[in-house]
Write a structure and sequence with these properties.
The complex is a heterodimer of chains A (79) and B (224).
Chain A: E1 2-9, H1 16-27, E2 39-45, H2 51-66, E3 72-78
Antiparallel strand pairs in A: 1-2, 1-3
Chain B: E1 3-8, H1 15-24, E2 28-33, E3 45-48, H2 68-78, E4 82-86, H3 88-95, E5 102-104, E6 112-120, E7 136-143, E8 147-149, H4 152-160, E9 164-168, E10 185-189, E11 195-198, H5 214-223
Parallel strand pairs in B: 1-2, 1-3, 3-4, 4-11
Antiparallel strand pairs in B: 5-8, 6-7, 6-9, 9-10, 10-11
The chains are: A alpha+beta (79), B alpha/beta (224).
């Protein structure tokens, strides 16, 4: 099973990299972009095929190291 | 004579500067490799120096927090031992939770390396006891992730408990935006005032001929 962890700065926490990308898109005359948030994606290949166990384990990883929950939120997708 | 433990992680690059600084101030220093599980006996101060521990992979300071030595540092701090984190050391201290908040990418995304004036906000702590309140210090900064973030409730706690140490300012002492930090914060301490973290590098400001010796009175406070 593969776990995909997406990590983004929390709503309300200014994202300087997202903002810089937004500026660049504006400068290139791309229109209609209202907001840009930049995050990171961590893909984990797991030996387990039990979804419930995998979800719990990856949540623990996200809380303890993958994300800094002071400033970041995360989502977990199992595929 | 005070005994200073200077931690060294893979990627730390200010360990020798920090050692030089404290030896110049008359201390014994020991470089402690991150795989050690104990601090040297009779340690009077632990310094986590600047650099790029683990190449800043994942987040600055994120991987260093699981090094064996950090457990010893957390115990030491919880027993009232003094800990100073400079730059990457500050990032590590927020990652392990010894200091509140977090350090994000600079608002302009640039790595900023230059002398920067700082305003002393609170001096009722060991670190800044030899500085005057509102005094303007000239200290080098060198970081990409120095944009200090804390939520509103956390910020109120910092203010209430005099935990804000220094803020970025101009030469007249007016606050300036350097990296996007909440209210231009450059350094803080914990509520018990035994754990200190700042982005600027006092260990690089020891000799007037090299630009500034304002770092001396900062570091001297910790070994007084």
């Amino acid at each position: 099973m593969t776990a995909i962890v997406n990590i983004f700065l929390k709503e309300g926490v200014l994202d300087p990299q997202g903002k810089a990308i937004h500026h660049a898109l504006d400068a290139m005359n791309f229109e209609g972009v209202e907001d840009v948030r930049m995050g990171k994606q961590i893909v984990l290949k797991l030996s387990s095929d039990n979804r419930e166990d995998a979800q719990k384990e990856v949540e623990k990883m996200a809380e303890e190291i993958l994300a800094n929950t002071v400033i970041e939120d995360y989502t977990i997708e199992l595929v | 004579m005070k005994n200073i433990a200077v931690l060294q992680f893979p990627g730390t690059n200010c360990d020798l500067d920090t050692q030089y600084a404290f030896e110049k101030l008359g201390c014994n220093t020991t470089i402690v490799w991150h795989k050690e599980s104990k601090l040297p006996e009779n340690t009077d101060l632990v310094v986590i120096p600047g650099g790029f521990s683990y190449g800043d992979y994942l987040r600055s300071g994120a991987i260093a927090k699981f090094s064996p030595i950090m457990e010893a540092v957390i115990d030491y701090a919880n027993q009232g031992g003094k800990v100073l984190g400079i730059c990457n050391g500050f990032q590590i201290l927020t990652e392990v939770g010894l200091l509140p908040g977090a350090l994000k990418r600079n608002i302009g995304l640039h790595f900023i390396s230059r002398f920067q004036t700082l305003k002393v906000v609170n001096n009722n702590n060991d670190f800044l006891q030899k500085c005057q309140k509102d005094e303007v210090l000239n200290i080098p900064i060198a970081h990409a992730d120095g944009n200090y973030y804390i939520d509103e409730e956390g910020y109120r706690e910092l203010e209430k408990n005099d935990q804000i140490l220094v803020r970025y300012c101009d030469q007249a002492g007016e606050l300036v935006v350097v990296n996007g930090s909440v209210t231009s914060i450059a350094g803080i301490c914990n509520r018990d005032k035994n754990v200190f973290g700042l982005m600027p590098h006092p260990e690089r400001a020891l000799e007037h001929i090299l630009g500034s010796d304002d770092g001396v009175k900062m570091l001297e406070g910790l070994i007084a």
